[in-house]
Amino acid sequence: MALRKILHYPDPLLKRKSETVTEFNDELRQLTEDMAETMYDAPGVGLAAPQVGVLKRVVVIDCSASEEPNDLLVAVNPEIIATEGDSVEEEGCLSVPGFWASVKRAEKATLRYQDVDGNLHERTADGLLGICMQHELDHLEGVLFVDRLSPLKRSMFKKKYMKMLKEREQNAAEA
């Protein structure tokens, strides 16, 4: 396993749509293992392949509350097949470090996906897992959580975030 570099906004790769996985092989297994290790190291609760520069429809999620990872969901070619209710929760993203915002999503979502061997599964979730599933699937469509903000909040985010990036670059140059 190996840690992969997580791409950060405004990297243009994050805005691209991912391709369907057609080969279930060792390369796919390696990708999912690397993604899980990268997610846990970050630390985060979800990671989509585009966030590590791979435009494939693959996500890893683990919303377990313990210090020990124990509920890893590896979803290949995932799609949300049903939603229910509405929820507004605070979200963050490994590709948008240091920024959090309230995002409206479905309260409950049903996910259909394949595992690394190509077997088909379905899983229904609410709470953090349900939100995380929706968040990660957005990445596969080239959508970041900040794209779901109102135009005014998105504009404020861009100004604030770009200022934060400039300050980081200046601090790094001075160090």
Automatic annotation (TrEMBL):
Keywords: Hydrolase, Iron, Metal-binding, Protein biosynthesis
Catalytic activity, EC: 3.5.1.88
GO MF entries: metal ion binding; peptide deformylase activity
Active site: 136
Residue sites binding Fe cation per the record: 93, 135, 139
SUPFAM superfamilies to which the protein is assigned, alphabetical: Peptide deformylase (SSF56420)
The keyword Metal-binding belongs to this UniProt entry's keyword annotation: yes
Cytoplasm in keyword set: no
Family matches, as InterPro entries: Peptide_deformylase (IPR023635), Peptide_deformylase_sf (IPR036821)
CDD domains: Pep_deformylase (cd00487)
Record's catalysed reaction(s): N-terminal N-formyl-L-methionyl-[peptide] + H2O = N-terminal L-methionyl-[peptide] + formate
Family: Belongs to the polypeptide deformylase family.
Name the record gives this protein: Peptide deformylase
Organism field: Malonomonas rubra DSM 5091
